[in-house]
Give the backbone structure.
Amino acid sequence: MILYTDSHAHLSSREMLPQIDAVMSRAKMAGVEHVVNICTDLETLAAGLEIAKKWPSIRNAGSTTPHEALEWGEEHFPYFEREARAGNLCAIGETGLDYHYERSPKEAQQRCLIRYLELAAECNLPLIFHCREAFGDLFKLVPPKCKAVLHCFTGDIEEAEECVNRGWMVSLSGIVTFKKSEKLRSVVKKIPLKQLLIETDSPFLAPQSRRGKMNEPAFLPETAACIAFERGLSIEELAHITKENAARFFAF
Ligand SMILES: [Zn+2]
């Protein structure tokens, strides 16, 4: 059986948590062995720590998102800090900058990001970045030697190259399978295999054949197949490479 790692899913979100048993059993049947669960607030953090006890293949990452930086950035930080220091997180994030929606003012997003950059450095943990239309500022704020993944990458070739040159991982979601994503598929060809991760970002962004449905880790193979095709690899090879990359990057 081909085994995969989903490097980014919101399993403890309000949408997915009520169905977690079914979601995890379908993930297992689809060969999705490890899942990095992204906790974004106190509720999803507490639930994430619980589900990781039941399914040891789930690893938690956490931070406030750029969207909620203003509302929850200050208040939630000590909770994520505590779990990071206790060794209960495999990464810090998703943090970063989102100037597309700009649900929090840019300055609040930057302040929140900087705090998490410091926490990650202190705890020696990798970072998971969310970035939309803010690459200039992200590259400015993040120190050069930072260990990070750019999750759900949808940027252009220059932005991909800058990530790659900084040694970051680049993670691709179901967006790569969308009919209109020709440009992103051409970027996929330029990312060194050693720096590639795959993710669902479930419950969001179901791949092409399931568009409109709630996404889940079991749909990861469709994204893997698309990337494998673009790279001229077998699905097995692509799954193996990205699984090894995730294990190395998140240290599991
Ligand atoms: Zn996410």
